[in-house]
Specification:
Protein name (chains A, B): Purine operon repressor, PurR
Low-confidence stretches of chain A: none
Family (chains A, B): Belongs to the purine/pyrimidine phosphoribosyltransferase family. PurR subfamily.
Largest interface: A-B, 64 and 63 residues
Domain Bacterial purine repressor N-terminal (chains A, B): 5-74
Number of strands of chain A: 12
InterPro entries (chains A, B): PRTase-like (IPR029057), PRTase_dom (IPR000836), Pur/Pyrimidine_PRTase (IPR050118), PuR_N (IPR015265), PurR_Bsub (IPR010078), WH-like_DNA-bd_sf (IPR036388), WH_DNA-bd_sf (IPR036390)
Pfam families (chains A, B): Pribosyltran, PuR_N
CATH class of the largest domain in chain A: Alpha Beta
Structural class of chain A: alpha/beta
Strand content of chain A: 25-35%
Number of domains of chain A: 2
Mean pLDDT of chain A: 94
Oligomer: homodimer
Chain lengths: 270, 270
């Protein structure tokens, strides 16, 4: 195929970087790939940076030094983020989402690839400088968001199970107490899932009191790993929290079953 | 911000299309967004098509008619697909993956955002013309691949559960018999998860005899929905299949625990 021209090369660079978030590509890689001089590519990359800024979808950075190169960090501009979270609140406050017991139905939201990828991009931004080795979640409902967060950070996802599967090999199980209903629960993780001494973040769809987060801390201790951050899509404001340091994107303030009212808004203290 | 020039606009178009796979954007949308004439944009889109073709990462199509516009369908060229699947086989044949019972450890592979997104892109391509309404999977290990398939198809993901959760509302449960071990299992799905009369595909990480796929057929019947396709990452060749029409990307031929040997290769009949 013919050599690409600048107007095509800038697009190709954006596509490659965008398909590989937070992966560093050397200038040499692009130079070989396109058969272009490095100086030409530097100009291409400047244009790519401008486009990403224009779209408000993250940033492209040039890193210097031996491990240097170019990388794309996905993101949403404050404006896009605020629009997205407000739309989400509107969807989630529909009275027909109320489920007996004061819950709201969120599966269609948290399982939607479109929504979970944006949520993952937004959550990842809070942890990008935390030197994260793994994104950890507990089955089941948090998995899509956690996967998309891991994707944006370019880090592996680890899923703790409620029950031990036969395909995990040796595993470690712990007991923990749920924060709101004080029930004893169990979670387990295959021994090979985490490398000793790793830094992990816990991502989930919903947090009431934070009992599950505490369980994750216990589980990580068994692997000599550290929890360096917690991020959830929705926190319930009614419950006193067992954990202090976490990020939530939305706050569920009230579910009034009797009058069919839900109060949910973007969390303000981020 | 200044108006973008062609060399930037082509890149912006690719980024927007690529972040929204299989979503149709009207020419009018781009025309408003960039403040450019439609004729100019048509040329931009031709360049974007060329770039995607050059990279072997799917295709950009122009659809005519009232619902017309431009859309990007992710894909991998035959060359990239074959390279990727061969690399995957190499990783999966490492003897330290053998787990007692003739299983191989795949969690790090199927939970990796990088790998699951490529697997999802490849699987989606088989079902793009099937008029799919939902991608269905059963918790837990198939979720990342199913989510990425749903993402590539721009369709919602639905996850059947092993146990009924309190946050699903009313749900339907069925019993099914596993194909290889003849155990009775149960799966359930919230009543609001699927619209009556929908066309669904079932995506999973691993298929032995296909008992789970049969369970999905039963479950979908309860919702008056139809299973129009099955796609799995790995099928085990040893087991006689209960389902005939399915796509697998890799075939696991043999796990020799005693001698520490695994035989796995890209499935040839696709």
């Amino acid at each position: 195929m013919d050599k690409l021209q600048r107007k095509e090369r800038v697009a190709a660079i954006i596509k490659i970087l965008s398909d590989n978030p937070n992966k560093v590509f050397s200038l040499g890689y692009f130079s070989d790939f396109f058969g272009s001089a490095r100086s030409t590519l530097s100009e291409d990359i400047s244009l790519a940076k401008k486009v990403v800024e224009y779209l408000g979808c993250g940033k492209i950075e040039t890193l210097s030094g031996a491990a240097g190169g170019v990388k794309y960090t996905p993101g949403l501009s404050e404006k896009l983020k605020s629009e997205f979270l407000n739309e989400l609140c509107e969807k989630l406050s529909s009275p027909d989402r109320i489920i007996k017991g004061g819950y709201i139905y969120m599966n269609d939201i948290v399982f939607s690839p479109d929504i979970s990828s944006k949520v993952g991009t937004i959550l990842a931004a809070y942890f990008i400088d935390k030197n994260v080795d793994y994104v950890v979640t507990v089955e089941t409902k948090g998995i899509p968001i956690a996967l998309m967060t891991a994707n944006a950070l370019n880090k592996p996802l680890v899923i703790a199970r409620r029950e031990v599967g036969v395909t995990e090999g040796s595993s470690v199980s712990i007991n923990y107490v749920t924060g709101s209903s004080k029930k004893i629960q169990r979670m387990s993780l295959g021994k090979r899932a985490l490398k000793k001494g790793s830094r992990c973040i816990f991502i989930d769809d919903f947090m009431k009191a934070g009992g599950t987060a505490n369980g994750i801390v216990e589980l990580l201790k068994e692997f000599d790993c550290e929890l360096v951050g917690i991020g959830v899509l929705v926190e319930a404001s009614a419950d006193k929290k067992l954990v202090s340091d976490y990020i939530s994107l939305l706050t569920l303030d009230m579910v009034d079953e009797e009058n069919g009212k839900i109060k949910i808004y973007p969390t303000t203290n981020n």
